[in-house]
Amino acid sequence: MNNQYKKGVLELCVLSVLSRRDCYGYDAAELLSSRMELSDGAVYPILRKLKADGLVTTYLSEESGGPPRKYYSMTERGRREYQSAVQEWISFVEIVGDLLGINFSSNWNGGGV
Amino acid sequence: MSKNEFLEILRKNLRGVPDADEIVSEYENHFSAKCADGFTEDEVSQKLGDPENIARQFLPEKGAERAAASSGVGRAVAAVGLGGADTLMAMLAAPVGGGIAALGAAALAFIVSAFVLVFSPRASWLSVPYIPHAALRLSFAVSLLALGVTTAVGTWHLARAFSQFLRAYGRWHSNTWAAASGRPVYPPRAFFPQTPPHLRRRIRAVMLLSAVIFAAAALISYVTAAAAAGALEFWHVWSWFV
Question: Stretch B178-195: mean pLDDT, rounded?
Fold first, then answer.
């Protein structure tokens, strides 16, 4: 998949993972890279940006027989932003689908007669 | 690429990024976890991607960077400019403010004198000039009161304009500084008071009326006083200034 495409929606994907449960970085990277073609390293900058924007927070959690892990957890604000981003995404996809002629129920006729 | 190589390149390219250590340690943890799952360091770094590229994603965006760089120079220029403007403003504001205060004091003095003239013409605590007739004192008092009202309304109007001007300047000052620091700017304030038309008409009417009353009462007082004293310079007859 085109890299430019992914870059924009990756934030939304990371948020969707965190909306289900708290994750540590490695965990989130695994989850995402198992579903889409993505280098593991790209998830950390996004997590950090989301934290800087106040959409997620972090906390340390002791694991049995290992160093404490840094967990990422969605904030209230993150949840709200995620909800509205999902709505935006849905309408965006609908419009693009329309333009590409995927959604045949629309009035768009591809510029033809 | 080995774990150490990867982390070294990452660290080198994160120079200047706040919490670079924290970022590096996060990738270090990633290596530990992955290696514990049975991957080799080489495989893990392969999957992570190019460390230089990763480091770039932690750097502030280009636009933000430029804004930060320009704000340093912009702020220095703004500080010098605002300092000069403030000095000029203070030099202007001090005498104008003082003038308005003096005008207000004069208005108060006129009004107080008018009342003293009528209600205690022989007040020992105020050097009220001697006027022999009650009716004449009243006429003088009316002219003084009218003058006081004209001055007071004028002072109030000037003070309003002046304070509006100062507030507009203050807004301009903080906006200029905010713009230089890259912070949001508030809408500018008007430099002149926005007087609604009905209020403006009323102010004009009061000023005009009190000015006319003052002129008329002053003229009548003078003529009457001159006639009563039998001299054009009646104040000498009543020895006002001795």
Answer: 79
CA distance B27 to B45: 10
A40 CB neighbours in chain B (<8 A) are 30, 44, 47-49
Residues A44-85: pLDDT tens digits? 989 988 888 889 998 888 776 667 788 899 999 999 999 998
What's the CA gap between B93 and A10, in Å, rounded?
A: 57
Distance of CA B222 to the CA centre of its chain: 45
CB atoms within 10 A of CB A24: 22
**A48 contacts in B (CB within 8 Å)?**
23, 58
Fold (CATH) for A3-75: Arc Repressor Mutant, subunit A (1.10.10)
- Say if residue B143 is exposed, middle or buried (CB neighbours under 10 Å; 0-12, 13-18, 19+): buried
What pLDDT, in 10s, does the model give residues B115-125? 888 887 776 66
Using the Cβ of A51 and the Cβ atoms of chain B, whether some distance falls under 8 Å is answered with no
**Amino acid letter, B230:** G
ipTM over 0.90: no
